[in-house]
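Severity: low
Component: inverse-folding endpoint
Summary: output formatting inconsistent between runs
Steps to reproduce: submit the following C-alpha cells with default settings.
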C-alpha cells in the first residue's frame, strides 16, 4: 500500500473520530442547560452514530486508525521522536485500554443486552455508584482530545493561515472540552439530587434495564478479551520490531563521518537514517524524499560498493551538477562500510530533523505572481527620497490589498517589485483563479493610484505582471528572527521570467497556459507565444494580455 494512500486513509479515519468526539462534547455540554437537554441531544447523536452508516463509519474509522497506527509503529526505522510526537503516540496507544470500559458498558451492553445507556443511568453510575469510573472516563476523554489536537496541529502546521488561526483554534481546543466537562458536572449534580428522590433510582433501573450479574460477567469477558487481543497485537508489533532490529544488527554496516565519527546501522538504513539515529545534524529539506539534494554527501571511501543510484536520484544529482562521488544521503543504503562528508551545513537542530518542521518546507502546487513597476527608477530619479518612499508605500498598499483581497499572500517587496503566492491552502485551481483576479485588481488599483497622484507623477504608473502555476517548495525560510513564508523552484523562476516578458510585449499581463488550464479560463482570444526561459529546457507557452481589463474571469468560489 502506498504511503500516500495510508496517509489519506488515516486522515479520513481521524476526521470521522474527531467529528464523533466534537459531537459527543457538544452533547455533554448540554448538561449546562439540563439533564433533559442532554437526553434530547443524545437522541440526535445516536440517530447519527447508531444508524447503519454511522456505525460503519465509526467502527470502520476506529479499526483503520488503530491498524494503521500499529503498522506505522512497526515501520518506523527508529523510535526517536519529538516530545509531542511521543505524547501523541503514547496517548494513541493507551486509548483503546482507557476507552474499552465505557464502550463495553454503553454501546456493547445496548447492542448485546438491550440496556438503555441514557445519560441519567451513565451519570448515576459515574457520580453515585462508582465515582472512580467517572474519573477514569474523564481521563480517557481528555487523552483522546489531546491526541486529536496534537494530530490536528501536525496536519495543519504547514498551512500558511495556521499561525494566524492557531490562537483561535487553541481557544476552541480548550473551550470545547471545558464546556463538555462543565456539562458533565452539571448533569452529574442533577442526577445526584434526583437519586435522593425516593423511587427515582428504581424507576430508572426498571426503564433502562442495566445488565444483571450474568450479563455484567459476560461484558467483563468481552472487555478483557478485547484488551488481551489489543495487548497481543501491540506485543506482536514490538516483538516484530525487536526481531527486525536483531536481524539487522547482525547485518549492520559502518558509516564513517568526519571527525572521525563512526555510526553502525542495520543494512537497509539510508545514510540519512544513520545521521538521524546518531543525532548527527544533517540537512534534509524535503524530509528525505529525494526531491531537494540538500542531504547530499561526498563519499570519500566505499563509493564503488554502494548500490547504484536510482533514476530519480540520478536526475536530482544531474540537476545540481553533482560530481560523480556525490550521493543523496536519503536515497543511499550502504551495504559495506563507507566514509561520507555531508556537503550542506544543516540549519536546523537534530531533533527537528526527526519531524517535518515547518522550516523544512514542503512541496505544493501553487500559483505565483510577480509584478514590477515599469520605468519607476527613471521616474524616481529627480524626486526627493522621501517622496519616492511615499509613492512606493502607496503602490505597495494598492497591490498588497489587491493580492490579499483575492486570497493571496504577499511574499516579497523588493525595490518596486512584488512576489505573491496563491492557492497554498486552496489548491492550484482556486489559486490560479485568485492570481488572475489579483492581477486584474492590481492593474485597476495602480491606475486609480496614478489618477490620485497625477499632479505628483510625470507619467501614469504602469505595471507588468507575470503569473504561472505549478509545483514549488513552500516553507518558512530565513534566519534568526527573519523567517518568512516563501516558495522556490521552477514555477517561481518561470513566473519571474513572465513578468520580465511583459516589457518585451509591452503588455500588462503575461500568463502561462498552465495557469489558464488550472483556472479553467479560456484565454484563446489573446495572442499565444512560446517563451524561452534561461537554464530551463523547452519553452513555456504563454498568453500575452495587453490590457488586464480585457480579462474575463469566472465568479470566485470563495
Ligand atoms: S533530503 Fe531531500 S533529497 Fe535527501
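Observed output (run 2 of 3):
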Amino acid at each position: 500500500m502506498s504511503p500516500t494512500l495510508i496517509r489519506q486513509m488515516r486522515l479520513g479515519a481521524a476526521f470521522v473520530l474527531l467529528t464523533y468526539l466534537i459531537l459527543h462534547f457538544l452533547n455533554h455540554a448540554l448538561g449546562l442547560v439540563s439533564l433533559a437537554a442532554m437526553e434530547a441531544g443524545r437522541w440526535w447523536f445516536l440517530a447519527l452514530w447508531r444508524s447503519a452508516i454511522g456505525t460503519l463509519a465509526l467502527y470502520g474509522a476506529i479499526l483503520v486508525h488503530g491498524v494503521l497506527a500499529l503498522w506505522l509503529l512497526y515501520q518506523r526505522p527508529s523510535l526517536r521522536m519529538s516530545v509531542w510526537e511521543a505524547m501523541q503516540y503514547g496517548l494513541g496507544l493507551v486509548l483503546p485500554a482507557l476507552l474499552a470500559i465505557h464502550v463495553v458498558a454503553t454501546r456493547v451492553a445496548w447492542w448485546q443486552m438491550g440496556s438503555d445507556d441514557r445519560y441519567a443511568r451513565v451519570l448515576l453510575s459515574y457520580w453515585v455508584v462508582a465515582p472512580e469510573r467517572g474519573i477514569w472516563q474523564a481521563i480517557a476523554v481528555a487523552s483522546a482530545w489531546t491526541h486529536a489536537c496534537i494530530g490536528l496541529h501536525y496536519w495543519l502546521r504547514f498551512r500558511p493561515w495556521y499561525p494566524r488561526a492557531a490562537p483561535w483554534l487553541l481557544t476552541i481546543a480548550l473551550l470545547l472540552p471545558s464546556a463538555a466537562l462543565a456539562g458533565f458536572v452539571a448533569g452529574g449534580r442533577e442526577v445526584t439530587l434526583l437519586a435522593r428522590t425516593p423511587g427515582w433510582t428504581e424507576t430508572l433501573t426498571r426503564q433502562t434495564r442495566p445488565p444483571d450479574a450474568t450479563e455484567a460477567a459476560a461484558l467483563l469477558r468481552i472487555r478483557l478479551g478485547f484488551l488481551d487481543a489489543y495487548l497481543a497485537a501491540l506485543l506482536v508489533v514490538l516483538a516484530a520490531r525487536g526481531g527486525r532490529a536483531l536481524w539487522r544488527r547482525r547485518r549492520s554496516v559502518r558509516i564513517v563521518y568526519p571527525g572521525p565519527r563512526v555510526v553502525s546501522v542495520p543494512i537497509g538504513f539510508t545514510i540519512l537514517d544513520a545521521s538521524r539515529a546518531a543525532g548527527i545534524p544533517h540537512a534534509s529539506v524535503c524530509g528525505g524524499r529525494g526531491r531537494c539534494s540538500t542531504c547530499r554527501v561526498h563519499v570519500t571511501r566505499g563509493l564503488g560498493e554502494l548500490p547504484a543510484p536510482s533514476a530519480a536520484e540520478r536526475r536530482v544529482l544531474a540537476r545540481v551538477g553533482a560530481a560523480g562521488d556525490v550521493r543523496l544521503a536519503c536515497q543511499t543504503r550502504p551495504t559495506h562500510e563507507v566514509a561520507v562528508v555531508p556537503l550542506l551545513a544543516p540549519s536546523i537542530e537534530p531533533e527537528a530533523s526527526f519531524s517535518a518542521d515547518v522550516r523544512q518546507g514542503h512541496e505544493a502546487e501553487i500559483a505565483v505572481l510577480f509584478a514590477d513597476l515599469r520605468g519607476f527608477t527613471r521616474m524616481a530619479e529627480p524626486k526627493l527620497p522621501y517622496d519616492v518612499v511615499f509613492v512606493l508605500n502607496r503602490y505597495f498598499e494598492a497591490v498588497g490589498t489587491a493580492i490579499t483581497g483575492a486570497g493571496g499572500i504577499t511574499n516579497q517587496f523588493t525595490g518596486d517589485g512584488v512576489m505573491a503566492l496563491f492557492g497554498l491552502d486552496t489548491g492550484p485551481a482556486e489559486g490560479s483563479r485568485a492570481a488572475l483576479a489579483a492581477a486584474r485588481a492590481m492593474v485597476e488599483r495602480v491606475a486609480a493610484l496614478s489618477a490620485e497622484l497625477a499632479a505628483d507623477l510625470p507619467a501614469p504608473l504602469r505595471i507588468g505582471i507575470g503569473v504561472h502555476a505549478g509545483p514549488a517548495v513552500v516553507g518558512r525560510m530565513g534566519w534568526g528572527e527573519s523567517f518568512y513564508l516563501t516558495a522556490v523552484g521552477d514555477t517561481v523562476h518561470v513566473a519571474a521570467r513572465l513578468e520580465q516578458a511583459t516589457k518585451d510585449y509591452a503588455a500588462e499581463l503575461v500568463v502561462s497556459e498552465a495557469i489558464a488550464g488550472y483556472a479553467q479560463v479560456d484565454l484563446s482570444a489573446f495572442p499565444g507565444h512560446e517563451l524561452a526561459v534561461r537554464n530551463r529546457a523547452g519553452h513555456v507557452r504563454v498568453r500575452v494580455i495587453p490590457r488586464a481589463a480585457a480579462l474575463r474571469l469566472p465568479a470566485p468560489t470563495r
